[in-house]
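Researcher: Structure prediction, please.
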Amino acid sequence: MKAIKCLILSVVLTAAFFAGCETSRDIQYDREPVAHLEAMRFGGVELDYATLLFDVEIDNPYRVSLPVPRLRYALTSDGHTFLTATAFDNVTVPPNTKMVLTLPDQVTYARLLRALDGEPGSTIPFKAELTLSLDTPGSGWINLHAENEGEIVLPEPPEIKVEGKTYNAVDVVFVPTPRDVVDKMLELAEVRKDDLLYDLGCGDGRIVVTAASRYGCMAEGFDIDPRRVEESLENVRKNNVGRLVTIEQKDIFTLDLSRADVITLFLLPSLNANLIPQLEKLKPGSRIVSHSFAMDGIKPDKVVTLISREDQCEHTIYLWTTPLKKETGE
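Model: Predicted structure follows.
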């Protein structure tokens, strides 16, 4: 009899427990979540990127929290789409709550200015269309759409002075090269242990660190942005290649490149072209490899493309060997 009473008590307690727990299938979806884009604004501009902020009001009528892990957006100005992107920022809307979330994304400011054909300080009209992906318990993924339009002022970028010259975000652009593209660049340049490699605009130092680690060669990285220099030095330290790699804050257009056997570039086409007088002073047989951008008027020895595993995009790599060969115009 005692065993039967204990069993009955256990059943009652279990039933009471589950009665008090609300599973996702018990939730009544009488109303759908709603999103409204209240504003789009700049949160600040660094040397190489700007932070866009989207103030989005989300009404969550459910009795559970709603994660918002992904934001897709498209921005147009005068009917021209100048930016589309996907941002990831794991934020959550509490249950039975209407609240404004500020969702950030970072964009390359110089490219944004070029896409808009705009100048810092100018005011542009915009239309923003957002798609917020929400993970709703019991119903899976749903997308909320929101849009707004208005005007936004393009902020002034910060400036730095190096060797008596002033630079800003229009001059300094940092977009990391995928690591498998780095590998292909060094392979195409046929880097050897006795080479000296210069990376012009070294960013976070991934090319010089990879060259030193994989091939055992000496490598020097140069960047004008002090923050990039700090990142490169930290990368060198983490990978224990300080005996082979040096990093300097330099204006690359003041460098004597004649000692280098290999030059690596991921610069804008205009900057590649401006480097030609310096590159022409390299000793015969030196190799120059550039990610994405050619060199106006100079014929490459090889051009290869690959689909990066990191971003699933096609990347082009150019190889030149000195002495440089002029395009014939045929």
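Model: The chain has two domains: 31-159, 174-326.
Researcher: Thanks, that helps.
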